[in-house]
Fold this protein.
Amino acid sequence: MTSIWDRANPQLRDLAAYEPGKPIEETARQLGVPPEEIIKLASNENPLGPSPKAVEALRAASAFAQLYPDGGGFILRNAIATNLGCARENIILGNGSNEIIEFLGHAFLQPNDNAITFQHAFVAYKLVTALFGAQTTEIPTPDFECDPEALLAAVTPKTKIIFVANPNNPTGTLISEEKIDNFMAQVPQNIVTVLDEAYFEFLDNPPDTLRHVREGRNVVVLRTFSKIHGLASLRVGYGIARPELIEILQKTRQPFNVNGLGQVAARAALDDCDHLAQTRKVVDAGRAFLEAEFAAMKLRFVPSAANFVLVQVGDGASVFKKMLARKIIVRPLAGYGLAEWVRITVGTMEQNKKCIAALKQVIA
Ligand SMILES: *Cc1c(COP(=O)(O)O)cnc(C)c1O
């Protein structure tokens, strides 16, 4: 009998599944302990929780959960546009910014097309590219240094998209505004450049990448409510681009791709300046603490601009398991070709201290 796989699209055969951070509930079940005892530092979530304003708005909006959401996302897109000083027509909403990466595949990638990104880049680019039967060219990054000029040499007539995460996940490295500008000055106009800024709000001196949108370049800037705003469970992200590009991406989405509760919560979180400022403060202090402790432990780490740190621990899979036994979830990175490393999200100071104490036992 022939396998149904023979009927499936061939690129699906070898397509790897995205490996998310291990969930708290699953870990608690396996260890036989209450979920409250588990510390998850595996998915770059906000250690302070969601914006309280978002929670309040969610509560009120839950009474209307029987209604379909505004598929056009009028209120949220307007609010984001006002916040950024652009127009609603410059904004597309996604079920997380991950969904917008998929829209880009729907819109631009066909079998045997090419996309370019850095080695150790956020893995969703490669997965989406493969999903559409296209190939990814990965540009080596010795010492994790990302110079976008190096991407240009790999451009071929088949290249449709260049993906750059800034800061990058899982490395936390930041590309300067000058380097981005230099790249944008040289990249062929018929290539869509994606600047994924999921950690933008954590930056001290964020690069002004929206300038390239304003100047009408084929660039899509991605942001999300999952990280600093603490709304990862609700799945809301957005893309910023020139209106013609947004129009193309809008064609690829489901009519109600972002749920109504998510839209309401994101709207409220957007101007919760207190929550943003508090989160930044906790993350700045926590990241400095983790990096100082890694240095004291003589562990190599990559200085991070985001709310996580990549640290070299020897056998990443084994450290992950031993940390798990101590009720702390970190992120192993074999799937990123970083088997000797783990990625640790900055938590509350109490969580960071417990994490370091456990890591000292595990590595000793
Ligand atoms: C977390 C993350 C995202 C997106 O997350 P969503 O929850 O889908 O919005 C996108 N890019 C990078 C680099 C990330 O780390």
Q: What stands out?
A: The chain has two domains: 4-49+274-363, 52-270.
